[in-house]
Design goal:
7 helices; two-stranded antiparallel ribbon; 3-stranded mixed sheet
Length: 213
């Protein structure tokens, strides 16, 4: 598969997942967007805003990789929990600062097949603690939310347009929990994240108290 075919395949996937995500909420009323099944859960609107915040975080990471790799054959960037704050809910944050535990995760990520890693991110079985930077805003107006997501996606596509002929497997980032990913893998993460939260939106709308309009 050529570089152009690989990036085209990755971009097609994120666009398909985003279109499916839009279909879950863009026709909802403001009352439906703001409905929460419980006091400590998110609304559909908050889920959508979180998806945008996560895309911005991954988009910034790709931008820094492309800038760091300018004029170089390959580049690997070390990413910390501060840069990419995705942590398992079941493990206290202080433990994740301990080198032996981080080394164990690093070894585990080396041997866990990529399809299985993708499955964990795309489904809610693997509980992820949301970092403060990715906490959504409640009550965003519907049109503002849609514009925010559309503008972010346009920026992501524009960022990657000049890089379509490059071998993007040479641009990598290494995370203590999530392992090592190139730019193709980063787009896969973006698509899987959309899928995960589209399923969350579906569950919210199944609530017996979900507004009729």
């Amino acid at each position: 598969m050529t570089n152009e075919e690989r990036i085209s395949h990755a971009l097609d996937r994120i666009q398909r997942e985003r279109a499916t995500l839009y279909s879950q909420f863009e026709g909802l009323s403001q009352a439906q967007l703001d409905f929460k099944p419980s006091r400590d859960s998110w609304s559909v609107g908050e889920v959508a805003h979180h998806v945008g915040l996560a895309e911005k975080m991954l988009q910034d990471n790709v931008r820094e990789l492309l800038q760091a790799g300018e004029g170089r054959r390959r580049v690997t960037r070390k990413v910390t929990f501060r840069d990419l704050p995705m942590k398992p809910r079941i493990i206290p944050g202080l433990l994740l600062e301990m080198e032996p535990l981080l080394l164990s995760f690093s070894i585990m990520n080396t041997f866990v097949p990529r399809p299985l890693q993708s499955f964990f991110l795309a489904n809610s079985i693997f509980r992820i603690k949301t970092a403060p930077a990715l906490e959504p805003t409640a009550g965003m107006p519907r049109e503002e939310l849609l514009r925010y997501l559309h503008d972010l996606r346009d920026a992501t596509l524009k960022l990657l347009e000049p890089a379509k002929s490059k071998d993007l497997s040479r641009y990598r980032w290494r995370h203590p929990l999530m392992g090592t990913h190139d730019i193709y893998g980063t787009l896969e993460l973006m698509a899987n994240h959309d899928q995960r939260h589209r399923l969350q939106m579906e569950e919210i709308q199944k609530s017996s108290d979900f507004p009729a309009s």
